[in-house]
Structure formats: C-alpha cells, structure tokens
Amino acid sequence: MPRSWSRFRRTAVLAGALVLPPGLLAEEETSVDLPGYWHQLTTVAFSPDGALLAAGGWEDGRTNSVGLWDIATRKNVAMLRGHREPIRSIAFSPDVRRLASTSSDGTVRLWDIAQHTEEGVLQAGGSAVLCACFSPDGTLLATGGADRSIRLWDVPAGRQVALLKGHRREVQALGFFPDGRYLVSTEPPATTWARDRECHIWDVEHREMAGTLAYGQTNAIVFPPERGPPVADKDTWEQQVREQIHRLVGNAAGTAFLPGGRVVAAAGTRLELREESTGRSIAVLDDKAKGVQAVAASADGTYVATASLDGIARLYALAAQRQLALLRAHDDDVTGVAFAPDGRTLASVGGRGELKLWDVAALRQTGGVRGSDGPLSCVVFSPDGVLLAVGAMDCTVRILATGTCKESARLTGHAGCVRAVAFSPDGTILASGATDRSIRLWDAKAGKALGILTAHEDAVSGVCFAPDGLTLVSTGYDRTVRLWDVPTRAELTSLPVPDGYAMCAACSPDGALLAVGTAQGAVRLWGLIDRAEHGTLQGHWAAVRSVAFSPDGSVLASAGADGTVRLWDIAARRPRAVLTGHPGPVRSVAFSPEGDLLASGGGGWDNAVRLWRWQ
C-alpha cells in the first residue's frame, strides 16, 4: 500500500496567501504530499474535471507505474503498471474515461479509468514516446517521440492513422487547437543556452504541415508555398498559434498556466506564482522544491501539482487570496512590523538595528535608520502617526519622528531588553515591557517616566492597551496574563496560562476579547470584562509570537514559529486560512487600518516582510 500522502503539519511547502478551499484539505494543512513507489517522478496531470490527479515516473527495481488519486477523498485509487521503462507523459481524455501514458519503452498505453485496467498498448516504433494529447472530441491521440516524429492514433480502433515528420529534434510538447483542426508541436532548443526552438503547426484533417514558427524570434509563421494561411484572418490565427506555442513551451519548461493571467513556474529550487504578462512574482509556493520535473494546474486554477525527483507528487491549493509583495527588508530577523494609522506606510525593524519605512502602494522603501546601536525588537506608530516608538535590545525605547526618522528621545530605565511597546489609544502614554520583569509607563510627548508596574516573576513579553485606554494588558514568561488599571497603576487580575509562556496579546477593537499567544502554539481567548475564558484556537505547532485583530474584530491573525500565519474566524472560533511562505519563524503580524492588507515579518533564514491581500 502507498504511504499516507497527508503529512504536512510540520513541514509547510506552500507559500503566499494561497489558502485551502473549504472542505478539501484539512485546516491545518497547507500542502500535501502524494508519495507512491517511485524512485523519481517525471510527469503529473489533472483530469479535465479536476477530480483526479495522475503522476508517473520510474521505479527502482519495479514495473514503472502511473498513480491515480481522488483529490476529494485524498485516496490513492490506483497504481497502473505495465510500462517497462520510465513514464514520460500522461494525458486524460476529455470525457475522463481514458488515460494515456507514454514511456521510454517506445509504447503508449491506454487505461480505463473507471476499471483501472489496461485497454491496449500502442507500439510507437521503439523510440521513447515523450508527449501525448487527446483531440477535443477524444477520438484522436497525438504522440511525439525521440525519433522526431508525431503519430496520430484512432483511439476507438487502437491503431495509428498518420505519421507526421518535419522536426529536426525530438518532439517535446503537443497541443490541439480547441476546434481540433490544428495541432501544434514543439521541440527543444538546439543547445541548453539557446532560446530559439522550432515549432510546427499541423493540419489534422489533411495530415500535413500548415506552418512553421521559430519560437523566440519575432518573425511570422512561415507557410509551405503550396498552402498559404489556412484562414482569411491571418493575423488573428497567427496570434492564436503563438499563444498556443507559448503555453506548450512553458509547460515543457516546467510552467503551468492558470486562469486570470497567472502562471506557476518551477526554476531551480523555487516554485513561484507569477503574473503571466510581466513575469512578476506574486507568491513563492515553495522555496525548497526538490527537483521539480513537471508542473500541472487544474482547469479552474484551484490546484497546482508537481512531480519531483524525490519520487513525490505535491499538491498545492490556490485561492483568490494572494501575497502582494515580498520585501527583502533586513539582514537579520524581522522582529516587528506596524502600519501607520493612514495605512500608507509600513514600518519594520530587525535584528541588525535597522528601522525601515515602506510605501505600501509603491512597495518600496522610503526611509529609515540603518545600523543603530543594537538589535531592535518591536515597533509601533502613535495613533496620530506622528511618532514611532521602537524597543531595543540595549534596554532602551527610542522615540522618532515618522517623517524624518530623527530620534527625539531615548527612554532609559529598563534593566533588560525591551520586548514590547504600545501607545494608549489617545497617544498620551507609551507602555514598554522588558526582560527585567517590569512594565514602564511614559509620557509619550515629553518622554518622561510616569510609573513602573511590577508583578511579573519573569520576562515581560507583550503589552497592549484596551480600546478605552483604562486597562493595560501584559504577558509574561511566568505563564501569566496580567491586567492593570492605568490611572491607579494597580494590578486588576492575573490570568494563568497553563500551556507555557504567554508570548503576546491583543485586544479586540470592541474591547470584548483578549487574545493571547502561547509558547505551545495555542491562542487563548478571554473576556476583557468578565475575565472568563472564551475558547482556545489550536493550529500552530510552535510558539505564537504575535497576534492581531482585524479592524472590525471579525478575524484574528497569529504569527507562529512554525513558519505560518493563521487567520481565525472569531465568531465561529475556527480556522479561516493558513498563509505560508516564510521559510523560518514568523515573529510579527499587523493588519492595515482598512483591514484589506496583512503584513508579516520573518526570522530564521527569511528576514523578509511579506504583504498579503487576504480578503
């Protein structure tokens, strides 16, 4: 029996705001593996209806096989064996009744998908058969081989009806026009560094070449002298041919085309979602891809699958949500991110002492401070956007003017690293929490100390104000959450956290809920008024380093050391989405004031700020 193909709880592969369709993959999963018995995988394909995924390759010491999976049930429904040498390509018939597989053994095998049985074997001259495709009505099968020829097969009769010659190199990819009248074929470039490749257009009815195009050049299609253009609207027809060739060449090079002008491309160890027209990267699906040999996309663009040299097919789920930008922000961990109140500017701080300001619309850096006296740990804007407060590992809090990033005050008094800073809603008070177990309150404008709050028995890891500004919340490594009365500086209550350190906290905009991230990966909810527990959100398998409510309070974002950002539906107390892409721990997360954007900062070997359009 094949191994389980659902093991992605601790090893995220998917990136970008690529979110699971409801009911398909488990909420905690972002990608799944489909292992079979292969030593290496070379090809992968979706059925036209998106219900099945097929993958093929070669096995070490076994009969080479094609694996079939039912995507909805996650079950391996068949292993189709018969080829003596590695599988080179797979094609589903349009009605999903048949599957064709080609192999280096010089054969094409037709399979009955419902019965999982072999219908017949087509002998293709002994040379490796590299590609195959069905005609739109399913009656013809075209195959291309290493012998530089294309064969057309009558599928019901199981016999060859034409042999098309004209390529000077092996036939790498094939594709029928939607009306079935023409077939396009491509061959690889002459050398690995050359761009140009010869592509042919074939008249299917007359079994002859209709034109030739040197792909990579700007010249028009060259027609045989006795034929000329096959249609009156020559320009439109040629454009259709170019688009078809563009997609075939892309597929042969490890690219899958999606609806909406997007492509998924494999390059080296990266699998990326790109904008087709510009090639701009939209999201990184996998930055540790293991020798991707082929990429396929379902017809509706919901899923992407890859075949890899490690013998595993990987399934990725895509949705409308997407990563907008990857900002290579810092030379070390991104320890804090914050949006300005107007939503136009994003601030990020890092372990090398850098503060950077970003223009959110233009996705470019507009200012900052480089290489200050030591690592910076957290950042927050004042409610009016005029000031920035930055916590530092040198036990200080720096106050800077947002426009110039000029330091206006440096607040001293802590005897430990400052881990968290927060402005009161009216902007008059700044709170800071540090590893010296204390919380200090400051006059935000004058930069003067107002008081010290001491009760925590270990480092203070987070601080936040309730919306009314009268209550301050602090979290600590002493496994407690403490609530303070700001006017009197008195401790109101202490809430125990049974599952490890309390790492961070956030208050909902309506002042009803308190969310606390813990070292064990849970997010605990309490009522700010009744102080009662209101549930626990489970999903992260490592510490939750940052939490943030959306402006309307309906969604909570949590940043985990497991490399994921998770979105939670607060009303239903259930997962809403998993955003993956950070290859290391995620240390901070923040919503834009409008709530349409989410920023996250990564650590480990990532050191990037990612912007997500999550709605």
In percent, how helical is the residue content? under 10%
Radius of gyration, taken over Cα atoms and rounded to an integer in Å: 29 Å
Count of alpha/pi helices = 1
Principal-axis shape equals elongated
Structure description:
- With 615 residues, this protein is mainly beta.
- It has 1 helix and 52 strands.
- A 4-stranded antiparallel β-sheet has the order 1-24-23-22, with no helix packed on it.
- Strand 6 (87-92) and strand 7 (98-103) form a beta hairpin.
- The chain is elongated and about 95 Å long.
- The chain starts with 30 loop residues before the first strand and ends with a strand.
- Residues 1-30 have low confidence and may be disordered.
Give the helices and strands, then pairings.
Blueprint: E1 31-35, E2 40-46, E3 52-58, E4 64-70, E5 75-83, E6 87-92, E7 98-103, E8 107-112, E9 117-123, E10 129-134, E11 140-145, E12 149-154, E13 159-165, E14 173-176, E15 182-186, E16 197-203, E17 208-215, H1 234-252, E18 255-258, E19 262-267, E20 270-275, E21 281-286, E22 292-297, E23 303-308, E24 312-317, E25 322-327, E26 334-339, E27 345-350, E28 355-359, E29 364-369, E30 376-381, E31 387-392, E32 397-401, E33 407-411, E34 418-423, E35 429-434, E36 438-443, E37 448-454, E38 460-465, E39 471-476, E40 480-485, E41 490-496, E42 502-507, E43 513-518, E44 522-527, E45 533-538, E46 544-549, E47 555-560, E48 564-569, E49 574-580, E50 586-591, E51 597-602, E52 609-613
Antiparallel strand pairs: 1-24, 2-3, 3-4, 4-5, 6-7, 7-8, 8-9, 10-11, 11-12, 12-13, 14-15, 15-16, 16-17, 18-19, 19-20, 20-21, 22-23, 23-24, 25-52, 26-27, 27-28, 28-29, 30-31, 31-32, 32-33, 34-35, 35-36, 36-37, 38-39, 39-40, 40-41, 42-43, 43-44, 44-45, 46-47, 47-48, 48-49, 50-51, 51-52
